[in-house]
Amino acid sequence: MPENAKPPDMAALSLPETLAALHVNVDTGLTKAEVDALRKEQGYNEVAETKGHLVLKFIRKFWGISAWMLELTIVLSAVLGKYSDLVVVSALLVVNAVLSFMQEKRAAGVVTTFDHPRNRRRGTSGASLPYRRCWALQCSWKCSCSPSVLA
Questions:
Q1: Distance CA 71, CA 78 (A)
Q2: What per-residue confidence (pLDDT) applies to 4?
Q3: How far is C-alpha 12 from the geometric centre of its chain's CA atoms?
Q4: Residue 49: how many CA atoms within 13 Å on its side-chain side?
């Protein structure tokens, strides 16, 4: 491709056009040498994770339409002198934020469980190619998955 030519817009291409533009053989896939060359050139196929501060994540639970409605109710209860309502709605707001924060933290723990370094996948040459992040789920004895589903 000439240096001044624009690369093709991959999102607009059909599947056969995309495979042709990437010079991919569907039957054989990439060899280990091609994988290593592409990895050197473009890096791993991954999205960088950013871990935020836990306090900021918790404070963000008070930002949103549901939290704003409860906060408005708290302000109106204070203005009208309905202090029992103020306490109940405030407790509801805080409990909702704590439960949401804990659920999000628990879900993040599940994601890190799948992100184990021993997860590997075989290349076309039979060599074990480590994924930096492997999301392939292992098939247990209870399910009836075929190996092609997990490939």
A1: 11
A2: 62
A3: 24
A4: 7
Other Cβ atoms less than 10 A from the Cβ of 93: the count is 19
Residues comprising the chain, all counted: 151
Angle between helices 83-114 and 65-80 (to 10 degrees): 160
The pair of three-digit structure tokens given for residue 18, joined into one six-digit string: 């995309």
Distance, in Å, from the CA atom of 26 to the CA atom of 24, rounded to the nearest integer, reads 6
With 0-12 CB in 10 A as exposed, 13-18 as middle and 19+ as buried, what is 137?
A: exposed
Residues with Cβ within 8 Å of 38's Cβ and at least 6 positions away in sequence, in order, are 30
pLDDT, tens digit, for every residue of 14-54? 888 888 877 777 788 777 888 888 788 877 777 677 778 88
Round to whole Å and give the CA distance between 86 and 69.
Answer: 13
Give me the DSSP letters along 3-22: TTSPPP-GGGS-HHHHHHHT
